[in-house]
Amino acid sequence: MELTPVNIVIAVGGGVTLVAYVAYILLPAWASYERLWERIAAGFMTLFILVSLLGLGLTIGLSIVYFYDIYG
Question: Do residues 45 and 29 lie in contact, with contact meaning Cβ atoms separated by under 8 Å?
Fold first, then answer.
């Protein structure tokens, strides 16, 4: 498989998103609790935040692509 600039941008964007999720959402949630089961539960709950942010970004991106012909 040949790497195109689009593939590289998508991979870098995904990596930045993963690092930001871990640094700004997962680690603070993990550090807020002392018991292991509470930390695991908090980590699991942060997945809902991740999915919400990814869904919002996907919705905005698809809206831009869909309406580009109308307003571009």
Answer: yes
The pLDDT tens digits for 5-45 are: 999 999 999 999 999 999 999 999 999 999 999 999 999 99
Output the pTM of the full model: 0.75
- Rg of the chain's alpha carbons, rounded to an integer? 17
Closest CA to 39 of 31, 47, 49: 31
Residue whose C-alpha is closest to residue 33's, from 25, 18, 43, 21: 43
Among 54, 42, 44, residue whose Cα is nearest residue 18:
54
- Residue 44 burial by Cβ neighbours in a 10 Å radius (0-12, 13-18, 19+): exposed
Collapsing DSSP to helix, strand or coil, 67 comes out as: helix
**Helix, strand or coil for residue 4?**
coil
